[in-house]
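In this section we turn from sequence analysis to structure. A common task in structural bioinformatics is to predict how a protein folds when a small molecule is present, because the ligand can shape the pocket around it. The inputs are simple: the amino acid sequence and a SMILES string for the ligand, here adenosine-5'-diphosphate. Study the lines below before reading on.
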Amino acid sequence: MQHQRIALVGFMASGKSTVGKSLANHLQRPFIDLDKHIESSTGKTIPDIFSSLGEEAFRQLERNGLTNVVRGDESIVLATGGGVVTQAANRDVLKREWTCIYLRARPETIRRRLQQDGVVRPLLAVDNQTEAIRSLMGLRETWYNEVADFTVDVDSLEIPAVVSQVIDWLND
Ligand SMILES: Nc1ncnc2c1ncn2[C@@H]1O[C@H](COP(=O)(O)OP(=O)(O)O)[C@@H](O)[C@H]1O
Ligand SMILES: O=C(O)C1=C[C@@H](OP(=O)(O)O)[C@@H](O)[C@H](O)C1
Ligand SMILES: [Mg+2]
């Protein structure tokens, strides 16, 4: 398998953190969640960073995190945050240095999963969540496609099925 650096990309709540962890287990590789990496390096939660420092500061931490998270030719699985593709510099790094797996989910799937999930996404903690999902997804979809080496439609797949599609593709 050639794919040393594997990154999961996709919209918030598409399953990057969950699938990434399981995929890393299957591949017996280290797993890093970029959001968790930022939280442990700053000692703040993601919502704290957004509320006390602002989104721009978070994007800076995210950019630094993406470039510093791996050294050399270490094999790794990385779960990115859904907004990583909003920065052109990140898209360049992802295209150049990472095999990117895009977990593609429809807005209804995102909404359903957000309701079941305890993790707060500051950009979706708004009055009209449906509209926020649609507009952000509209903005970002092209960027996910731009960096993707392989896309999985996750709407009707359970987590193990998503993982197994990715593994099949990696082994192809
Ligand atoms: N394929 C799936 N089927 C059902 N629930 C899922 C699936 N993938 C993820 N989830 C659930 O959706 C929520 C968001 O997943 P998460 O991995 O945190 O997404 P992301 O990191 O992309 O924001 C979690 O509660 C997770 O258990
Ligand atoms: O899409 C985004 O802009 C964000 C996604 C989140 O990660 P998940 O995609 O893992 O929810 C987290 O990085 C932050 O709340 C911002
Ligand atoms: Mg996540």
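The two ends are 9 Å apart (CA to CA). As an exercise, try to locate the residues that line the adenosine-5'-diphosphate site and compare them with your own expectations.
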